[in-house]
Write a structure and sequence with these properties.
alpha+beta; 9 helices; Glutaredoxin
């Protein structure tokens, strides 16, 4: 059975635009998925990247154009300048880690719900009430937002190290064995690769 390591940041607009297409591809091929939320800003600093706000104006302008164009192409609601971005990624990431450990709900739905809250619904995904609502919506116990914080912090840090050691430098990033796929526009390539393993 194929396995996907999915590296992402809960405030990444490109991870939001991936929607749940990766989950659909994984289900199609019977692949398992490990969700690995990470601190993307730290990863940028360690892999030669630059935080969006610090990029050259040409890159900032093109990023804005590309995000709006991609959202339109995917027919997804999208707010280029959400009220609560950037925000602390750790609390929402810890909740995803706790939910993955607990099981019983839909991790893909949880992850997308948190990102949608940021990029569409003008909510601060660092806030407990927002996280708890997303947990409940995805079929998890809302109390997971308050549990396993130490384990969540340790896993969150380990995910960053795993990402760095695996050649990850952005989000969303999908790894299957030795094959790496960067970007929401590479999900078709991920699909083709998984098909080739059958």
């Amino acid at each position: 059975m194929a396995h996907i390591d999915y590296y992402f940041a809960t405030i990444s607009p490109f991870a939001y635009l991936a929607g749940q297409r990766m989950e659909a591809v994984a289900a199609k091929h019977g692949a398992t998925v490990a969700y690995k939320p990470m601190d993307l800003m730290q990863l940028f600093g360690r892999t030669g990247g630059v935080a969006p706000k610090d990029r050259h104006i040409s890159r900032i302008e093109y990023r804005a154009i590309d995000l709006v164009r991609s959202a339109a192409k995917l027919d997804m609601a999208f707010n280029l300048k959400p009220a609560h971005w950037p925000t602390n990624m750790a609390p929402s990431s810890y909740a995803i880690i706790a939910a993955q450990n607990a099981g019983g709900g839909d991790l893909g739905a949880l992850t997308h719900s948190l990102m949608r809250a940021c990029w569409v619904e003008e909510k601060d995904i660092a806030q407990d009430d927002v996280i708890k609502a997303c947990l409940t919506e995805a079929g998890f116990d809302a109390s997971l937002a308050d549990s396993g914080l130490l384990a969540g912090a340790e896993t969150y840090g380990r995910n960053l190290e795993d990402a760095y050691n695996s050649g990850v430098f952005g989000a969303p990033f999908y790894i299957v064995g030795d094959e790496r796929f960067w970007g929401q526009d590479k999900i078709e390539d991920l699909d083709a690769h998984l098909a080739s393993l059958a």
